[in-house]
Amino acid sequence: MRFAQQSDETITLGHLPTYAPELNPDEQVWNHAKARLAKLLIDSKEAMKRNMLNIMRSIQKNTKRVRSFFQLKKTQYAAA
Prior knowledge:
50% helix; elongated; single chain; mainly alpha; 4 helices; 80 residues
């Protein structure tokens, strides 16, 4: 807090509730990844890891998708 006060108003603090996953764009990433993972046949721990890494990499490369996580009504604050 002290650092933000000394920043000449270049840092804006936002106060979020203790638990509010709907306000966290990261949760949208996980929701998307889990939905994709649920459609795959996972027969081992290695397959789970390999598929999840592939999904996360594909999300990372899709900037349009990543931006969409910040356009939801409750996550727009993070893009402002």
